[in-house]
Amino acid sequence: MTRIPLFIAATAVSVLTLAQTAFAGPQYVDETGYAASGFDVVAYFDLEQSPVGQSQPAPIAGKAEYTAEYNGAKFAFSSAENRDTFLADPDRFAPQYDGHCAYGVAKGGKVPGNPTLWRIVDDKLYLNVTKNVVTFWEEDIPGNIQTAEGNWVSLEPDAASDRTIPNYSSPAPSK
């Protein structure tokens, strides 16, 4: 029988725990109890995006009967097909930065992402917190993403934001 000194075993467990934490930070969930306030994250990819500087189309509400768990949160979908599409590749469809505001991450913090203030860039879904923030985000989307990516490495293990999305009333998924 091979014996491993306790401090080495404990270190290995700590490293394993850190590695798991780094790849699965806590998802932002608002008062609805759903990620992305219960909007169908797959459906965003079927919506026609507005040009930079204009408001995006309204996202599609999910239904309580079509849900999936991912990254410690419940996601709602408008159809069983969208739920199954999500489950086949959740990293592709889940909002970046665990649903936190992309510009907030670029500025070094975790604040809620408002699912009505969205943009898809390079086949990834990004959320922002307020219309005013969207203006700053859109001034340099590629630069903000690059900065956010660099910041996310140290921010991801932090607890998810527990703040409410400002000036936003979250609709619960329909039944």
From TrEMBL:
Keyword Transferase appears in the UniProt entry: no
YHS domain: residues covered: 62-97
Signal peptide: 1-24
Keywords: Signal
Pfam family, one: YHS
InterPro entries referenced in this protein's UniProt entry, alphabetically: YHS_dom
Protein name listed in UniProt: YHS domain-containing protein
Origin organism lineage: Bacteria, Pseudomonadati, Pseudomonadota, Alphaproteobacteria, Rhodobacterales
